């Protein structure tokens, strides 16, 4: 990625556009308890509708995942929130202002398009970004060094950015997004290309930022990451909002009424037939690890679990919690197998070796 696409360039471009902002305040009173509000936001590119009449509220202090397949409208929505592009119509509010530009020093942003000033030294780049975002020079270099040590890059202060691997560069850009202690942190596909060790490190850093009271938004097409991290999610598909709310409420609403039985022995037809014969069971589906027992709505699960535990050679039995992929498939329709295959491709399953190479 060339220097012209660097984060600093985006911020300078935003500042330069400040005089051209036309979005006014909402007709109703602004709720200062919300970090972000979008009302009727609509964006097209030629004949393609990228975001369609979107309403969205992100409360202050929340950790929210923007989820959906590639091309769903996540990055377009984030760029409108950041005032990098503007909606064709609709209104938005960011930290009590009608534009992110008015609150730019209170926002940290990691764009989807990674970009560092490759010829600059890492420490020099981060000090520059801190100053660009309103930080005082006093103590800034020490803070940069402390952050680099925290992410395992303590020896990189004087290295050029181009000398770092992609995973290292991504950690440097994360530091640049949070160095100035913003109130709102927006991370666009932050886990892309990271190996498992660095994914865990980034999850810990995101949780740490959230625990300190900051509002965090991150976009991802890997829905399991949102399940692991978020307290609320916003799901988008083909520019349309399909789900929005706290995760615990979503789990309750889309409870699949499903029992999973992990067996000690290989599953045979007799086990499946016994599970299928229990009152309230809609279907029993064998899997390599056991049996998935799907219940009719409102059927009691406890008697069925007791019967299965008393008859089958069980290693483990549990109520299965819905996952966001299953909920997504239920909401958007279509072939479950085809959608699962597409999501698996987006997750990069089977590409661990390549992730380790890029993130070393």
Notes on the structure:
- The chain has 360 residues and is an alpha/beta fold.
- It has 2 domains: 3-251, 3-Layer(aba) Sandwich (Rossmann fold), CATH 3.40.50; 256-319, Alpha-Beta Plaits, CATH 3.30.70.
- Helices cover 36% and strands 24% of the residues.
- It has helices at 7-16, 74-81, 122-132, 140-150, 166-178, 196-211, 223-229, 247-253, 269-276, 302-311, 324-332, 336-347, 352-359, and strands spanning 34-45, 48-59, 63-67, 89-94, 107-110, 184-188, 215-220, 232-237, 240-246, 258-263, 281-287, 290-295, 314-319.
- The strands form 3 sheets. It has a 6-stranded mixed sheet, sandwiched between helices.
- β8 (232-237) and β9 (240-246) form a beta hairpin.
- α11 crosses α12 (336-347).
- The longest helix is centred in the middle third of the chain and has 16 residues, at 196-211.
- The two termini are 19 Å apart.
């Amino acid at each position: 990625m060339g220097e012209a696409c660097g984060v600093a360039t985006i911020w300078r471009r935003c500042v330069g556009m400040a005089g051209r902002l036309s979005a006014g305040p909402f007709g109703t009173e602004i709720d200062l308890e919300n970090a972000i509000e979008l009302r009727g936001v609509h964006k097209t590119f030629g004949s393609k509708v990228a975001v369609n009449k979107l309403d969205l509220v992100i409360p202050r202090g929340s950790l929210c995942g923007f989820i959906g397949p590639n091309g769903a409208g996540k990055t377009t929505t984030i760029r409108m929130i950041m005032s990098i592009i503007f909606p064709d119509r609709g209104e938005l509010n960011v930290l009590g202002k009608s534009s992110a530009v008015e609150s730019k020093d209170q926002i940290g942003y990691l764009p989807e398009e990674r970009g560092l000033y490759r010829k600059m030294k890492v420490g020099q780049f981060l000090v520059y970004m801190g100053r660009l975002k309103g930080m005082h020079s006093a103590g800034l270099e020490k803070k940069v060094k402390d952050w680099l040590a925290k992410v395992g890059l303590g020896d990189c202060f004087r290295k050029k950015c181009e000398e770092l691997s992609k995973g290292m560069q991504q950690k440097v850009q994360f530091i640049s997004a949070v160095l100035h202690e913003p109130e709102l942190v927006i991370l666009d596909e932050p886990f892309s290309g990271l190996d498992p060790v660095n994914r865990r490190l980034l999850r810990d850093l995101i949780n740490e930022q959230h625990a300190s009271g900051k509002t965090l938004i991150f976009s991802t097409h890997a829905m399991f990451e949102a399940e692991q991290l978020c307290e609320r999610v916003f799901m988008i598909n083909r520019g349309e909002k399909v789900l929005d709310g706290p995760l615990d409420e979503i789990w309750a609403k889309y409870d699949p009424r499903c029992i999973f039985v992990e067996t000690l022995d290989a599953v045979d037809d007799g086990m499946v037939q016994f599970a299928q014969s229990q009152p309230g069971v809609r279907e029993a589906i064998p899997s390599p690890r056991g049996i998935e027992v799907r219940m009719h709505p409102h059927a009691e699960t406890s008697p069925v679990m007791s019967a299965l535990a008393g008859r089958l050679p069980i290693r483990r039995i549990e109520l299965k919690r819905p996952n966001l992929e299953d909920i997504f498939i239920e909401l958007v329709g279509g072939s479950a197998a085809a959608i699962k295959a597409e999501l698996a491709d987006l997750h990069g399953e089977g590409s661990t070796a390549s992730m380790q190479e890029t993130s070393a």
